[in-house]
Amino acid sequence: MNRHDTMPAGDRPGIGPPLWLLAELTYRCPLQCPYCSNPLDFAQTQQELTTEEWTRVLRQGREMGAAQLGFSGGEPLVRQDLPELIAEARQLGYYTNLITSGLGLTEAKVNAFRDAGLDHIQVSFQASDPELNNAVAGSRKAFDQKLAMARAVKEAGYPMVLNFVIHRHNIHQMNDIISLCERLGADYVELATCQYYGWAFENREGLMPSRAQLEKAEADVNTYRQRLADDGSAMRLIFVTPDYYEERPKACMNGWGSLFLTVAPDGTALPCHSARLLPIEFPNVRNSSLHSIWYDSPGFNHYRGDSWMPEPCRSCDEKGKDFGGCRCQAYLLTGHADNADPVCSKSPHHDRILAARKAADHATAGLEELTYRNANNSRLFFRG
Amino acid sequence: MERTPRLRPGFRFQWEPAQKAHVLLYPEGMVRLNDSAGAVLKEVNGQRTVADIVAILEQQFPDAGSLADDVSEFLKEAEQQHWILFP
Ligand code: SF4
Ligand code: SF4
């Protein structure tokens, strides 16, 4: 849903301001989604930033021009100081988004956040029916709670944005999912096919839909979209298809260090929420100002521009369009973050994508075989 | 001309000094507006009719001549973009 036209100028030639700030308040979460984008070793994360530290980050970000602010996690609701942070953010002039699983939310909180100035709550679902939803979330009562909270959000006058992460176990539910959203009165529905980072990469074989599944889902969404248009419905469907079925990579984060700045629970500043897995040293808001982090840190400058590109990107006439794709994907699939994103059919490593597609055609793993995101499993991944 | 536009719920219009522009903010998105779009949306408040808005802008820009067509056209587009509604 991000739209930007010409970029404003920042404080250094060629570097615009970070218009989007993502505050990952915590890695704590009551759910265990096997596609969670949090780092595999999240359980090792050191102390979370304090309220004062977050407040400073918000102020500095706003001074630099950040206008969109996301509170996410983990589950941001576990932070007791959330109302305070919302009020501070709103008062600074941010458009504030709360991205939540809905667990831990109450009607009272929905209203209190509204009064503090929260602009938008996005509730994420795992499926359109309780059985599948709760199996994916690793929680027995998640679905009913989500429904109740989606209704409370609408009631309180927020725009209703519902998010469904799509994978091979729920991709056949498109019609049911959309019709559930319609009944709830959603304004926006994000049908976001899994991106394979973090836990989702670990579980890719058990999550990735086959091409046939994907094509069916796309057809279902298009038919539904047409029907909504015919009915004059204002509900918008955003279907994010998996880049594993593309021949060109996505322009990841609109370019490294170009718009997005993520601050992780322990204060690590990142150009995107999965960049932590890269073998690059990233600065921490505890030791540096956001301004010097954004404009001057080696971590943020690492992949700006295109002088770092090896072939085939270096001499490719499309490099201004996709920036060579996603660094995390290049790293996860080729072992080198500088390489072209293997999604690109010009990449010498494109065969790894083809192999994943083939595997998806024959995958049989059930939900119970996935590795669920929880502290016990996380400790197994700790390599320190 | 007698209809009264307002911003869709969840949309916010504000001036952004860093971008030296008016922007529309909405769930996880932002549109940077050019000067004329900014000037029109600034007057959209759920109380003024299209005719009111045209009158205000014609007063602000006396050299621009009649603005009725431009304003109506822009508001129609803004409605199609789901930025505003005519309740
Ligand atoms: S994806 Fe699931 S497990 Fe991960 S933070 Fe979100 S709700 Fe929690
Ligand atoms: S070769 Fe590199 S720059 Fe060219 S299209 Fe592929 S990923 Fe993009």
Structure description:
Chain A: Belongs to the radical SAM superfamily. PqqE family. Chain A: Its cofactor is [4Fe-4S] cluster. Chain A: This is PqqA peptide cyclase. The two termini of chain A are 38 Å apart. A 9-stranded mixed beta sheet of chain A has the order 7-6-5-4-3-2-1-8-9, covered by helices on one side. Chain A is globular, with a radius of gyration of 20 Å. Helix content of chain A is 36%, strand content 12%. Chain A has a domain at 20-245: TIM Barrel (Alpha-Beta Barrel), CATH 3.20.20.70. Chain A has 384 residues and is α/β, with parallel strands linked by helices. In chain A, helix 1 packs parallel to helix 2. Chain A is built from 15 helices and 9 strands. Chain B is α+β, with helices and mostly antiparallel strands. Helix content of chain B is 37%, strand content 22%. Chain B has 3 helices and 5 strands, in the order ββββαααβ. Chain B has a 3-stranded antiparallel beta sheet with strand order 2-3-4, with helices on one face. A two-stranded antiparallel sheet of chain B has the order 1-5. Chain B starts with 5 loop residues before the first strand and ends with a strand. Chain A binds chain B through residues 1-6, 8, 17, 19, 64-65, 67-68, 70, 93, 95, 97, 119-120, 122, 157-159, 161, 187-188, 234, 236, and chain B through 8-10, 12, 14, 16-21, 23, 25-32, 82. Bound molecules: iron/sulfur cluster (2 copies). Residues 29, 31-33, 36, 38, 73-75, 101, 373 of chain A line the site of one iron/sulfur cluster. One iron/sulfur cluster binds at residues 248-249, 312-313, 316, 318-319, 322, 324-325, 340-341, 344, 346 of chain A.
